[in-house]
Specification:
The complex is a heterodimer. In chain A, 7% of the residues lie in helices and 32% in strands. By secondary structure, chain A is mostly beta strands. A 6-stranded antiparallel barrel of chain A has the order 1-5-8-7-6-9. Chain A has a 5-stranded mixed beta sheet with strand order 10-17-16-15-13, with no helix packed on it. The chains are: A mainly beta, B mainly beta. Chains A and B meet through strand 14 and strand 16 of A and strand 15 of B.
C-alpha cells in the first residue's frame, strides 16, 4: 500500500503461545437457526484442509477456525497475546515435528489464528509451542489521521494494493462489501479481540436467512458498511471498517464467517476498489520461504 | 372407561424458587472504559443498586453505563447465576430475605446478559434500605408460556403470565387479520441491534444502538417501553431473519460503549405476518410500576386505554 506510516517506530515483541485444544462440555449440542441441534467441529486445535483463498462456508462445521488456534496458558499473558498480535505477524513452531516452520497470523477469534501450508499443519497438534513476533499495534497513517489502524502488521499493510490517492482518500481493495444487517455476535466487543461474526451466510439454509454472503473466502479483505471499529465495534452511519475474513462456517444462529478488523474510519476517508483477488492468499500464503 | 377421550391440555408451567444476591458493581484495575470516539470514561451505574431511576424515566436520563432501575441480582456460582437469569421472568415476584429491607416485595422487570443479571424493581424506600450481598428470592415462573389465544407462530419468552394483562398486547382478532398486535414506543431496524446478537434470548438482553433524543425529547425511549426490532428472530439465539419481528421491554439505560445502548429483554418473536406492531412515540405506555404492582393504587385511573389479554 502506497502510504506513509510510522512503521519504523513500532515495537516488535516476541510472544509465546500453544496450540489450544478444541473445547466442549457434556451437553455437547448447540442450536442452529431453525432450532436444529448440532455437534460440529471447527473451533480450537488444528483444523486441516481450509486455508486463505478457500471458501469460508459450505463445511459441516461451526465457528470454523482455519489452521492452528493459539492461546497462552496464563490468562493475563493470553490477553496480551490476543491484543498485541496482528494480522500478518509471523508465527514459528517451536516444538513437535513441525518445529522451525513459519506461518502467518490471519486473525483473532479469542484464539490467535495461524495459517500454515497444509503439509506443515498435518504435522502439528494440540500443545505445540509457538512464538509470535508481534508488531502492529500503534501503526498509524500520517496522511489519514481519521483512519485508525487495528491489528494490522506493517508488513501486511505494505503488501496491500492501494494507498493514498491525489484526492487525499485511502484506496483499499476489497473482495466483498458487507451490509450493516449482517453484523452479528461480536458487536459491542473491543476490536482488538476475537472478530465480528457476519450473519446471512448460512450456506444451504433458508432464503430468509441469506444476505448474499455465501461466497466469502477465508482471507478475503472486506468492507463493512456503517460500522465504526476504531474503539470497539458499533453501528455508525457514515463510517467504514476494513477487515479480513479469519473464520468460516457457523451453524450457531447470529454467528457466521468473521472479519478481524484492520482499518476503520469515516467512509469518506476511503476509496473502495472492488477486487475479487483481495485475499491474504495473494500476499501471505503459502509463504514460509519469504518469512524472516 | 367410556366416552370421548379428554382434550389434550397444554402443559402447566412450573414454578421454581430461585435465590439471588444483590450485586456489587465490579471494575478492573483500570477504572476506564472507552467510548465510541475514543474518550475514556468511568462506568457508573453498571450493575448493583441504582437509586432514583424508575420505570418511565428516559433511557438516556443519567450519565451512566447500562444503569437499571432497581437492584441487580447475581449468584456466586456461575451455573446457578445462568439458571437464575434464564428462569426469572418479567413480572415474577421477588422478596428480600436478609438485611434491613428483609420482607420487602419487588418484581422482576428485566434481565441482562454476559454472566447474567436479574433486574428487580422495588419501591424506592425499600431500595434505599438494601445493600449489595442482600439475599433476594425470586419465584421463577413463565418459561414455556404458550397463551392459547396467541397465533401458533408467536414465541413468548421471559414473561410471567400474570403481567400479560398489564402490557399493551391486543389479542388476535378477525379485524386484525388474525395477527397479535402490540403497541410499542418505536420500531428499530435490525441493523441497530447491538450486543446480544448471537446470544440466547432466554438469558441475554439485546442492546439497541439508539441515539439520544433530540432537544424536544422526540424519539426518546423510556425504561419499561415496549420496542420492536425488525428482521430479528429471537426464538433461540438472536439473529437476522428477514420478515421477522422481535418485541422486548427496555430494561436498562444507555451506554457510551460502542455497540451498546438501551437494552431490551425479548418477550415476543414471530414472523411479521402474525405479529403486528403499532408504534406511538408520543403516548406509549409499556411496563409500569403499577403493572408490576409496585405502585400504590391511584384514586383515578388516567392515561391511555390498553388492550388486555
Amino acid at each position: 500500500m502506497n502510504v506513509t506510516t510510522n512503521s519504523g517506530r513500532l515495537v516488535r515483541q516476541v510472544l509465546t503461545g500453544e496450540v489450544w485444544p478444541p473445547l466442549a462440555d457434556r451437553h455437547a449440542y448447540h442450536v442452529g437457526p431453525d432450532g436444529q441441534p448440532f455437534v460440529l467441529p471447527g473451533m480450537g486445535g488444528v483444523t486441516l484442509g481450509v486455508h486463505c483463498g478457500d471458501p469460508a462456508t459450505g463445511y459441516a462445521s461451526d465457528h470454523l477456525e482455519p489452521g492452528a488456534s493459539v492461546r497462552h496458558r496464563d490468562p493475563a499473558a493470553n490477553m496480551a497475546l490476543q491484543f498485541l498480535t496482528c494480522v500478518g505477524n509471523p508465527v514459528r513452531v517451536e516444538s513437535g515435528p513441525a518445529a522451525g516452520q513459519v506461518g502467518h497470523v490471519i486473525g483473532q477469534h479469542a484464539y490467535v489464528l495461524v495459517d500454515f501450508p497444509e503439509p506443515v499443519l498435518a504435522q502439528m497438534s494440540t500443545g505445540d509451542d509457538v512464538s509470535v513476533t508481534a508488531c502492529g499495534q500503534g501503526l498509524a497513517l500520517a496522511d489519514h489521521p481519521a483512519i485508525v489502524v487495528k491489528n494490522c502488521a506493517p508488513e501486511l499493510l505494505a503488501l496491500l494494493p492501494g494507498g493514498t490517492r491525489p484526492d487525499g482518500t485511502l484506496a483499499v481493495h476489497v473482495a466483498a462489501r458487507v451490509p450493516p444487517e449482517a453484523i452479528g455476535a461480536g458487536v459491542g466487543m473491543i476490536s482488538e479481540y476475537a472478530n465480528t461474526d457476519l450473519m446471512g451466510a448460512y450456506a444451504g439454509l433458508g432464503d430468509d436467512l441469506s444476505l448474499g454472503l455465501e461466497r466469502l473466502r477465508i482471507g478475503d479483505v472486506v468492507a463493512l458498511a456503517d460500522t465504526d471499529h476504531r474503539y470497539g465495534r458499533a453501528h455508525r452511519a457514515g463510517y467504514l471498517t476494513i477487515g479480513v475474513i479469519s473464520t468460516g462456517q457457523c451453524m450457531l444462529f447470529g454467528h457466521g464467517p468473521g472479519p478481524s478488523t484492520l482499518l476503520s474510519g469515516p467512509a469518506d476517508a476511503f476509496c473502495l476498489v472492488d477486487d475479487p483477488d483481495a485475499n491474504l492468499a495473494r500476499w501471505l500464503h503459502p509463504a514460509p520461504e519469504a518469512a524472516p | 372407561m367410556t366416552g370421548p377421550a379428554p382434550q389434550p391440555q397444554p402443559p402447566r408451567l412450573v414454578s421454581v424458587s430461585l435465590l439471588g444476591v444483590v450485586e456489587h458493581p465490579a471494575l478492573g484495575e483500570s477504572p476506564y472504559r472507552i467510548d465510541i470516539d475514543g474518550a475514556p470514561y468511568v462506568p457508573a451505574g453498571d450493575g448493583g443498586i441504582v437509586l432514583g431511576l424508575r420505570l418511565g424515566d428516559s433511557a438516556f436520563a443519567l450519565r451512566a453505563d447500562h444503569a437499571a432501575p432497581g437492584a441487580c441480582l447475581v449468584h456466586p456460582d456461575p451455573a446457578a447465576r445462568h439458571a437464575l437469569t434464564t428462569y426469572a421472568c418479567v413480572g415474577n415476584r421477588a422478596e428480600v430475605r436478609t438485611g434491613r429491607a428483609a420482607g420487602a416485595i419487588g418484581a422482576v422487570l428485566g434481565k441482562r446478559g454476559e454472566e447474567g443479571r436479574v433486574i428487580i424493581g422495588f419501591r424506592q424506600h425499600d431500595l434505599a434500605m438494601m445493600r449489595p450481598s442482600d439475599q433476594v428470592s425470586v419465584r421463577g415462573f413463565g418459561q414455556g408460556l404458550r397463551p392459547a389465544q396467541f397465533p401458533a407462530q408467536v414465541t413468548v419468552m421471559n414473561l410471567d403470565p400474570g403481567v400479560l394483562a398489564a402490557l399493551p398486547i391486543i389479542a388476535a382478532e378477525p379485524e386484525t387479520g388474525g395477527k397479535l398486535t402490540v403497541r410499542v414506543r418505536t420500531v428499530v431496524p435490525g441493523k441497530l441491534a447491538g450486543n446480544g446478537l448471537g446470544r440466547p434470548a432466554a438469558g441475554w438482553d439485546l442492546d439497541l444502538q439508539l441515539p439520544p433524543p433530540g432537544q424536544d425529547g422526540a424519539a426518546d425511549v423510556r425504561l419499561g417501553d415496549l420496542v420492536a426490532v425488525t428482521d430479528i428472530d429471537a426464538r433461540y439465539n438472536m439473529g437476522y431473519r428477514r420478515g421477522w419481528v422481535t418485541i422486548g421491554i427496555v430494561v436498562h439505560g444507555s451506554s457510551p460503549l460502542p455497540g451498546h445502548g438501551p437494552g431490551m429483554t425479548p418477550i415476543l418473536t414471530a414472523p411479521a405476518a402474525v405479529l403486528a406492531v403499532q408504534p406511538d412515540n408520543a403516548r406509549h405506555v409499556g411496563l409500569t410500576e403499577r403493572g408490576l404492582k409496585l405502585a400504590r393504587p391511584e384514586a383515578t385511573v388516567t392515561g391511555e386505554p390498553r388492550g388486555g389479554m
